[in-house]
Amino acid sequence: MNNMGGKKRICDEGEGVWLGSSGLIMMILVVQCLTSIGSVSAAAQIPAMFIFGDSLIDVGNNNYLGSLAKSNYYPYGCDFRAGPTGRFSNGRTVVDMLGNLLGLPYVPPFADPNTTGTRILWGVNYASAAAGILDETGQHFGQRYSLSQQVLNFETTLDQLRRMMSGANMTQYLAKSIAVLEFGSNDYINNYLLPSLYSSSYIYTPPAFANLLLNRYTQQILALHSLGLRKFMLAGIGPLGCIPNQRASAQPGRCMDYVNQILGSFNEGLRSLANQLNTNHPGAIFVYANTYAAFGDMLNNPALYGFSVIDRGCCGIGRNRGQITCLPYLVPCANRNQYIFWDAYHPTEAANAVLAWRAFNGPPSDCYPINVQQMALI
Q: Mean of the pLDDT values across residues 243-256?
């Protein structure tokens, strides 16, 4: 751990993050350094993590799909040891860091042909850029694994796992593992808010659309439960109206308030769904991660976290560097850990570190009814 000019660099293994010296941030990345990067820790708190979601946590699945939504080129991954891997950030994702805090190595992408055999034992990442809860969401980008397809892909993984462990061991393994689900952003950004390509905003009011999403989401969550998973982290949607892509269309210095407002029905409904699922399934635990509040706190109090740039991407073109996202070999900003946003849509590694820590160790206002660390102990 090095100290320079009031900022500290955590980890000197080629994947350090420079951040302000607030106590919260120091705790985040000190914990990351206590676990080995890229290898199974002897102190692994859970057997595996199974990850379902979109580009916020895709670690390379779209590299293997016929999709326009890819990030397997520089400067994506410019601060990641392996370089551009298909992660939509300059460095690690939230789930990379969450896994690290749980003592797990990087969870590999499902679509990678090498994700077989013992490599799947600590979990698999099914997340796919442009994916949504609705099958049609993001279809203008080409191929992607929608939520329903990701559940089918998980079943493929189960077939492989059954060949490696007995039925009783498998039941225990799945019950102790954690499923992370992060969906909904694309159902708004790449569906509801694109009336020229999708009819959903003509058919549904914002509350009705949120209800549609939650009903479909519930079906797939229950499908995963029926397959044996028992610990679920359900991440809410962050303040999409404040991402550079949306700010580029807003009044100067403002977020798109309407976009943030319509997310309330979904996030409130997802929190209520977690309550309902916990009541109806006493042998399982469903946790709601309040991404909106955690991200909002960074936007409202950036200096507390070492950020100084909250309204534009580190890499991108146009107003707020958000009209055209990060293109191949575009030169990114130099002071990346002072930026909350990496490109038009996605957080920097530094912002991901804050989100991971708050999900792992936060109070009920961040993670309800318990946090991920507490869930791992059950």
A: 95
